[in-house]
Predict the 3D structure of the following.
Amino acid sequence: MLTTWIGATLARDLRALRREVEAYADERDLWRVPKGIANSAGNLALHLVGNLRQFVGAVLGGDGYVRNRDAEFSSRDVPRPALLREIDAAISAVQQGMARVKESDLARPFPMPVGGHTVATGDFLNHLMAHFGYHLGQIDYHRRIVTGAPAPVGTMAIPELATAKPVAKS
Protein backbone atom coordinates (compact mmCIF):
# COMPACT_ATOMS: atom_id res chain seq x y z
CA MET A 1 0.00 0.00 0.00
CA LEU A 2 2.80 2.44 0.88
CA THR A 3 4.50 1.91 -2.47
CA THR A 4 1.22 2.78 -4.20
CA TRP A 5 0.97 6.00 -2.19
CA ILE A 6 4.57 6.97 -2.90
CA GLY A 7 4.11 6.41 -6.64
CA ALA A 8 0.81 8.30 -6.66
CA THR A 9 2.33 11.24 -4.75
CA LEU A 10 5.30 11.47 -7.11
CA ALA A 11 2.95 11.36 -10.12
CA ARG A 12 0.76 14.05 -8.50
CA ASP A 13 3.80 16.26 -7.99
CA LEU A 14 4.94 15.74 -11.57
CA ARG A 15 1.48 16.81 -12.76
CA ALA A 16 1.86 19.90 -10.55
CA LEU A 17 5.24 20.57 -12.19
CA ARG A 18 3.48 20.34 -15.55
CA ARG A 19 0.92 22.92 -14.42
CA GLU A 20 3.70 25.22 -13.22
CA VAL A 21 5.51 25.03 -16.57
CA GLU A 22 2.24 25.63 -18.44
CA ALA A 23 1.44 28.66 -16.22
CA TYR A 24 4.29 30.76 -17.64
CA ALA A 25 2.54 32.96 -20.22
CA ASP A 26 5.86 33.56 -21.99
CA GLU A 27 7.99 30.42 -22.10
CA ARG A 28 11.14 32.54 -22.18
CA ASP A 29 10.40 33.39 -18.54
CA LEU A 30 11.06 29.74 -17.64
CA TRP A 31 14.74 30.43 -18.33
CA ARG A 32 15.12 33.79 -16.59
CA VAL A 33 17.45 33.86 -13.59
CA PRO A 34 16.67 36.90 -11.44
CA LYS A 35 19.40 38.33 -9.23
CA GLY A 36 19.87 36.24 -6.10
CA ILE A 37 18.48 33.04 -7.66
CA ALA A 38 20.83 30.28 -8.77
CA ASN A 39 18.63 28.34 -11.20
CA SER A 40 15.86 28.99 -13.68
CA ALA A 41 12.55 27.16 -13.41
CA GLY A 42 13.39 25.38 -16.66
CA ASN A 43 16.63 24.00 -15.21
CA LEU A 44 14.89 22.95 -11.99
CA ALA A 45 12.21 21.19 -14.04
CA LEU A 46 14.88 19.30 -16.02
CA HIS A 47 16.62 18.43 -12.75
CA LEU A 48 13.46 17.05 -11.13
CA VAL A 49 12.62 15.01 -14.21
CA GLY A 50 16.16 13.65 -14.55
CA ASN A 51 16.30 12.78 -10.87
CA LEU A 52 13.09 10.72 -10.89
CA ARG A 53 13.77 9.14 -14.26
CA GLN A 54 17.16 7.98 -13.00
CA PHE A 55 16.34 6.76 -9.51
CA VAL A 56 12.78 5.49 -10.01
CA GLY A 57 12.61 4.79 -13.74
CA ALA A 58 16.09 3.41 -14.38
CA VAL A 59 17.27 2.05 -11.02
CA LEU A 60 13.98 0.70 -9.65
CA GLY A 61 12.15 0.22 -12.95
CA GLY A 62 15.02 -0.89 -15.18
CA ASP A 63 13.84 1.26 -18.09
CA GLY A 64 17.36 2.05 -19.37
CA TYR A 65 17.18 5.83 -18.92
CA VAL A 66 20.64 7.43 -18.83
CA ARG A 67 20.83 10.70 -16.93
CA ASN A 68 22.88 13.72 -17.92
CA ARG A 69 22.82 15.71 -14.68
CA ASP A 70 25.17 18.40 -16.00
CA ALA A 71 22.76 19.14 -18.88
CA GLU A 72 19.93 19.57 -16.37
CA PHE A 73 21.66 22.72 -15.15
CA SER A 74 23.47 23.88 -18.30
CA SER A 75 20.67 23.58 -20.87
CA ARG A 76 18.99 26.82 -21.89
CA ASP A 77 15.84 27.72 -23.75
CA VAL A 78 14.47 24.20 -24.08
CA PRO A 79 11.07 24.71 -25.75
CA ARG A 80 8.09 24.27 -23.45
CA PRO A 81 6.64 21.35 -25.49
CA ALA A 82 9.93 19.46 -25.01
CA LEU A 83 9.86 20.15 -21.26
CA LEU A 84 6.27 18.90 -21.06
CA ARG A 85 7.22 15.71 -22.95
CA GLU A 86 10.03 15.14 -20.44
CA ILE A 87 7.58 15.58 -17.55
CA ASP A 88 5.15 13.14 -19.15
CA ALA A 89 7.99 10.64 -19.65
CA ALA A 90 8.87 11.01 -15.96
CA ILE A 91 5.25 10.33 -14.95
CA SER A 92 5.34 7.13 -16.99
CA ALA A 93 8.74 6.15 -15.55
CA VAL A 94 7.51 6.70 -11.98
CA GLN A 95 4.35 4.68 -12.56
CA GLN A 96 6.25 1.80 -14.16
CA GLY A 97 9.15 1.92 -11.70
CA MET A 98 6.99 2.06 -8.58
CA ALA A 99 4.84 -0.80 -9.90
CA ARG A 100 7.93 -3.01 -9.58
CA VAL A 101 8.64 -2.04 -5.96
CA LYS A 102 7.21 -4.38 -3.32
CA GLU A 103 6.42 -3.29 0.24
CA SER A 104 9.25 -5.54 1.47
CA ASP A 105 11.70 -3.67 -0.80
CA LEU A 106 11.25 -0.48 1.23
CA ALA A 107 13.36 -1.85 4.10
CA ARG A 108 16.05 -3.18 1.77
CA PRO A 109 19.02 -1.08 0.65
CA PHE A 110 18.41 1.06 -2.43
CA PRO A 111 20.01 -0.84 -5.34
CA MET A 112 22.85 1.66 -5.70
CA PRO A 113 24.81 3.91 -3.34
CA VAL A 114 23.53 7.48 -3.19
CA GLY A 115 25.96 10.26 -2.42
CA GLY A 116 28.48 7.72 -1.16
CA HIS A 117 25.97 6.14 1.24
CA THR A 118 23.82 3.06 1.44
CA VAL A 119 20.24 3.90 2.39
CA ALA A 120 17.01 1.94 2.69
CA THR A 121 14.83 2.16 -0.42
CA GLY A 122 11.88 3.58 1.54
CA ASP A 123 14.08 6.18 3.19
CA PHE A 124 15.46 7.24 -0.18
CA LEU A 125 12.00 7.40 -1.77
CA ASN A 126 10.94 9.65 1.11
CA HIS A 127 13.99 11.81 0.37
CA LEU A 128 13.04 11.96 -3.33
CA MET A 129 9.56 13.21 -2.43
CA ALA A 130 10.96 15.88 -0.09
CA HIS A 131 13.56 16.91 -2.69
CA PHE A 132 10.84 17.22 -5.31
CA GLY A 133 8.63 19.33 -3.04
CA TYR A 134 11.56 21.61 -2.19
CA HIS A 135 12.33 22.39 -5.84
CA LEU A 136 8.66 22.52 -6.84
CA GLY A 137 8.20 25.29 -4.28
CA GLN A 138 11.18 27.11 -5.75
CA ILE A 139 9.62 26.86 -9.22
CA ASP A 140 6.31 28.20 -7.89
CA TYR A 141 8.07 31.21 -6.36
CA HIS A 142 10.17 31.70 -9.50
CA ARG A 143 7.02 31.80 -11.62
CA ARG A 144 5.37 34.33 -9.32
CA ILE A 145 8.49 36.52 -9.22
CA VAL A 146 9.30 36.61 -12.94
CA THR A 147 5.71 36.77 -14.23
CA GLY A 148 4.14 38.86 -11.48
CA ALA A 149 1.23 36.40 -11.48
CA PRO A 150 0.45 35.44 -7.87
CA ALA A 151 -2.26 32.92 -8.73
CA PRO A 152 -1.61 29.38 -7.47
CA VAL A 153 -1.76 26.39 -9.80
CA GLY A 154 -2.67 23.74 -7.24
CA THR A 155 0.89 22.72 -6.58
CA MET A 156 0.30 20.49 -3.54
CA ALA A 157 -3.28 19.42 -4.24
CA ILE A 158 -4.77 17.30 -1.44
CA PRO A 159 -7.62 16.10 -3.72
CA GLU A 160 -4.99 14.43 -5.92
CA LEU A 161 -3.68 12.21 -3.11
CA ALA A 162 -4.37 8.52 -3.69
CA THR A 163 -6.72 8.20 -0.69
CA ALA A 164 -8.46 11.60 -0.86
CA LYS A 165 -12.23 11.51 -0.61
CA PRO A 166 -14.44 14.58 -0.19
CA VAL A 167 -16.09 14.94 3.19
CA ALA A 168 -19.87 15.03 2.95
CA LYS A 169 -21.34 18.34 4.06
CA SER A 170 -24.00 18.09 6.72
